[in-house]
Amino acid sequence: MQIRKSLPDIDRLSIVAAAIMLAFALTQIVNFPSQTLSFSLLGILIEFSIDFNTIVTTLTVILAAAGVEWLIQSHPERRTFKHFWEHGQHWIVPMLTAFVVGVALNSIPEGMVWWVIFGLGSLLLLAVFIAEYNLVSSDEVQYPLAMVGLTGLSFALYLLLAIAVYSSNLRLYLQLPLLGFGALMVISRSLFLRLREWYFMWVMVCTVIVSEVTISFHYLPLTPVQSGLILVGIAYALTSIVSALKEGRKGWAFWAEPIGMLALMVLVSLIKI
Length: 273
Hints:
Elements: H1 2-6, H2 10-26, E1 35-41, E2 44-50, H3 52-73, H4 84-88, H5 92-106, H6 112-135, H7 142-167, H8 172-195, H9 200-217, H10 224-247, H11 252-270
Antiparallel strand pairs: 1-2
């Protein structure tokens, strides 16, 4: 009975997940020549390539936001939201999930590996939808579990995004907005889950720091995995520091989590795989 209470309406969940993954599957069937858009900004030539995969990824991001909103509408404890951010907060991680899955699938050639990532992406999307649904509940058991799970999923998604972006050898003007906006989404959602309040100024400060690190990593001889791990470690450490400040922690209780996670990410990045 408790498990059933923790799950959204199965029909709605299956429809939303199937629609998103079907859109990704269509990229293996439908295709058209890419179109290049270029313009000059301050004497710098900027080019964007738009193809069917790009359009599908954009549409699935929008569909993920609409889908999680539809799922939340069926929650028995759903209340009338007074402000946009009260329900818009639930869109952040599903949108990031659809985007990361799309980027990952677009960077992998057709074959068995593509379908493995497709299957794992489907499971990940379901897990995110279920976690967001449980965050609507005021239950003392469901909310903390969903919070921990969704926070972990958020940073795991950001790691996958960073690895995919650095592996694609994109130019800096494309890397920076992708990883900067990803950090903005992950940090803002994680802080709200911890503190139950929006701290936009702190989120912007953390995002600027992560963006500066992103720029430096573009010129350092690091592998995509190393860059991704260290970047996630920094983003998580900054989130922990802000949380500790707002919760009034001091001494070792203040520094243990951020230093421990950052040290772990740096250590793992040094391991040769």
